[in-house]
Amino acid sequence: MFMPRETTTMIPRRRLISLGAGLTAVGVFLLALGLVAPLIVAVRVLLALAGVVTAFSGVSRLVWGLRRQRVDLLPWVCLAWLAVLIVAAVLAPVLPLKEHRDVAATLLEPVYLEPLRYYDHPLGTNSAGLDMLARCLYGARTSLTVSLLAVTIGTVLGGAIGVIAGYYRRGVDSVIGVLTNALLAVPPLILLIALSTLLEPSIRNMVLVLSLLTVPSMIRLARANTISFRQREFVFAAEAMGAGRLRIMARELVPNVLPPLLSMAVVVISGLIVAEASLSFLGLGVRPPEPTWGNMIAEAQGGVLQKHPSMVLVPGTFLFLTVFAFNVLGEKAQKRWNPRSAAS
Amino acid sequence: MTRKLLLRLGELVVVLALVSFGVFLLVALIPGDPAVAILGEGHPPEDYAALRAELGLDQPILNRYLDWLGGALTGDLGHSIVPPRSAVIDRVLAALPVSAELAILGLLLAMALAIPLAMWSAAREGGLVDRAIGASTFAVLSVPSFLSGLLLIMVLVNGLGWFPRGQWVRVSESITGNLHHALLPAVVIALSEAAVFTRILRSDLVVTLREDFVLAARARGMPRWRVLVGDALRPSSFSLLTLLGLSFGSLIGSTVIVETLFALPGMGSLVVNAANQGDFPMVQGATLLIAAAYVLVNIGIDLAYGFLDPRTRRVHA
Amino acid sequence: MTPEPPMSQEPPMTPEPPVTVGSTATPLLEVDDLRTTFHTPRGAVRAVDGVSLRLSAGETIGVVGESGSGKSVLGRTIMGLISAGPATEVQGTVRIGGRDVHALAPGERRRLWGPEVAMVFQDPMTSLNPTKRIGTHLTETLRLHLGLRRGAAADRAIELLVQVGIPEPRRRVRQFPHELSGGMRQRVVIALALACSPKLLIADEPTTALDVTVQKQILDLLGTLAERLDMATILISHDLGVIAGRTDRVAVMYAGRIAETAATAAVFEHPLHPYTDALIGSIPRLSNEPHAELRVIDGNPPDMSAPPPGCRFAPRCVHAFERCREEAPPPHEPLAYDARHSVACHAPLLPAPNADSGNADSGNADSMNGGDD
Is the whole model's pTM more than 0.90, yes or no? Predict the structure, then answer.
C-alpha cells in the first residue's frame, strides 16, 4: 500500500543510502522544528507532518539500500508504536507519572503548560494542572482494555454463531440471519447512544455494548467462510470417517475460519477505539475524572481550543496514531488472510 | 423482479418489527421506575400510579409494545419526559431536515471529492499521485470525525474566520446563509466518507481498467478521460454503491458528532441530549425512525443495481 | 520515446539497404527492428525483440506463434496501444502510412486508431463494455472520428451491422452485449473495427474464444471484408491451420523474433526453419493415417526475462549445433528462386537439389533436410 512503486531502473545502492540518510536528517530536523519552534500551531503541525513523511521515506530508502531489498517499514513502525503504548499503559501505575485524575492533588501545579517544554510535564498539563502524559497513558489503558476485551468477546461469540449458522444452514441460519440484519439495521453510534440511556457508563458496560457492535459483522464473515469450507473435501472426508458435528465444527471448520476472523478483528479494534472515543467525547462513555482520549478532547472544546490547541492535539495524536496503527496492521492482515474483503 | 421485491419487503417488515421491539425494550428494561425518574422523589403515591397508567407501565409488556407500535405507525411516538414534555414526533420532525440536509450535503461532497480523486489515482496506478492519494486517504480514515471537526474549527473558524460559529440558518430564511452554516459541518462529514469511497472506487477502477473492453475502447481512439468516465466508471461503481448503503450508518454517526460539535439542532444533538437527560421516549422514537430510514435506503440501493448493470436487469417479455 | 541505450548484444539486424521482407510496392506498414521490453520486478521481459515487417495496402499477413511468443504484444505495439511508459520500453520504429506511430503525441496517435488502424480482439465476451448498448459502441466511435451527427451515426451503425452480417440490426443496436451470442458479438467487434474504414486491421486471435463452427464464418467474413474494403490485415493466431489459405504471407514468431517469413504457400510447402517445420508437423490432418502420432515440440518456450543466447529455438531444436547456441542467426533469404522467403536460422532445412545459399553450414543443413522426410 505505501510500498514505493517497483522502480524499474535500479538506483545505485550508494546513492540510495546517501539519499535516504539525507531525507532522514531533513525529516528529523523538520519534525524537531515543528515540535519546538515558537511558531503558529498550524505551521508547526504542518512542519511536523512534513518531517514525519520525509523522515519515513528517508528511512525506508536507507533500509532498502542497506538490505539490498525493499522492505515495507510501515507495519513495523505501527507495531512498534502499539508495543510501546501497550507496555506503557500496562505499566502506567508503576511508572513515575504525575497525577492524572485527582484534581485536589494538583492545586499547586501550573495549568495549561505547553507540551515539550518542561521535564516534569513532558506533554504539558491541563486546566486543572493534571499531567497530560499520565492522562494520555491512563486513557490508553481504558481505551485498549475496552476495545480489546470487546473485540475478543465479539469475535468469539460472533465466530461461534456464524460457524453454527453456516454449518447447519436452513432454519438456524435464517433466524440468525434476520437477527443479524436487525442488529445491523441500527447505525452503530445510534445503537451505542440508545444503549447508553439504559446502562450506567462503566468499563464493563462499555465492553458489553461495543462487543454487541462487533458480533453481527463477525457472524457474517464466519458464516460466509464456513459455507465455503464445508463443501470442501476434507469436511466430507471427516464426515465419512464418522466425526460428529461438534467435532467437525471445532476441528475442521474453526481452524479455517479463524484467520479471516482474526484479521477482521484487527480492523474492528480501530473502529471500536473510535467508537469508544466518540461516545466519551459525547459525554456518554467513560466520564471524567477518569481520563480517556475522547473525554480529554471534549474537555478542550470551545474557548480552550483557541488558546491551548495542545489540549486537543496531544490526546488527538495518541488517538490518531493508535487507530492508524491498527488500520495499517489490519489491512496487512486482511490482504494476507481475508483477500475477499480487503478492498477498503 | 416482483418476487425479489416482495421478498425484500417481507424481510424489511421482519427487520423493522425486530428493531422496533428492541428499541421498545430499551424502556422496558430501564433500571428504576420511570415515573420516579419523571416526577422526581417525594410525590404522593397516587401521582406515580397515575403517571404509570398514563405511560401504560401497568400493562403486560406485549400489550405495551403493540400499543406503542400502533402509536408509532399512526405517527404518535409518545411524549418527552423532560419538561415541557413536547410530542416526540414534533421534535423529531423539526430536527430531521437539518440532519437530512447535512447528511445529503456531506454525501454529495464526499462523492464530488472521491470520484475525481479515484479516477486520477487509478489512471496513474502505482505513480506518485496514486501513492499520495492512497496514503492520505488512509490517514484521513484514521481520524475520528470529532477530531477532524475540531481541527477544522481550529483552523477555518478560529484561525482564518472563513466560517461562522454555531447557529443554524434555516433554508427558508436564507439559502446562502444556510449553505454558509452547513458547509463546514458537511465537509467534516464528507471527509472520512470520501476517503473510504476513494479507496473502494480506485481499487475497482484499477481492475476495470485492465479489462479488454477498456483497451478496445482506447483502440477505437477514445481519449483517455472519455474511457475513464464513459467506459470504466459505471462498471466500477458497484462496490461503491453497496458501500453507499452501508456508509449511511457511519454517515449518521458523523452527523451526530458534527451536530454536537457545531451545536446544530438536528437529530444527532436531539438524540445525544435526550440520552444525556435519560429521555428514553425521545431516544426510542428517534432511533426507530433512523433505523427505518437506514433499512429503506439499503433496499433502494439494491434496486439501483439493476440500473447500473443491465445484466442484472431482467427483460420483461 | 525513450532514448535508446544499447540493449542488445547482437549487431543491428537491419543492414543497408533494409532487407525488405515484404512486397515491393510502397508499404503501408513499415516495422523496423521493433523491440518491446517490459520492466517487471523479476527483470526485463523482452516480449518483442527485433522484428521487422513490411505490409502494403490490401495485403494480408498471418503472424503465427505459440502463446508467449510475443505476437499479441507485437500487434499492440504496432498499433501504439503499447507505447513507452514508466515500465515499458519501445525501440525501433513503426510507420503506418509513413507516420512514425511511436513518435506521435498521444492525441495524434489516437487519431490514427479508427481511420488508419483498428484492432479486433480475441474475446468478444470481454471486449465489449457490458454496460453499453451495441448501438452506443458504434455511434460514439463514428461521432468521435467522423464527426457524424446523432441520426447519421445511428444510420451508419445499422449499415455496419448489416455489413458484418448481423440479422435484425435495428433490434440489435438497442441490445446489450450479454444478450448476443459469441459469434454475433465478434461480428459487432468487427463492425466496430471497420467503423471508420481503417487501412490496416490487426486481428488478434479473432476466433480463439469462439466455437469451432463459428470460427470459419468469422474468418471468412474478415477475408471478404478485407478484400472488399481493400484493407491490409495482420491476422494473429497460434494456429497455423487458421492462417493456411487465408493470408498472402506468413510470419512465424518465436520468442519475440520472426523465425521465418514467406508467401503462405511457400511456408507450408517447404518450411526452412526447424520450428516452422515442427509447427506444421503438429497440425492434425484428415489425410493422416488413423492413430498416426502427431509430432510435438519437446520443451517449453524460453523465459523471456532470460532468453538463451544465440538462437532462441536452439534448446528445443533437434538440429541445433554449437554456433546456434552462441550466435543469433540473422534473417536471410537462402533460396535463389524465392527472394521473399526469409529465415533466421544457421541451418535452414533447404530443399535438397538446389541448395544454394552461401551459408557456411549448408552441407550440414542438407544432411538434416535429408533426414527430415
Answer: no
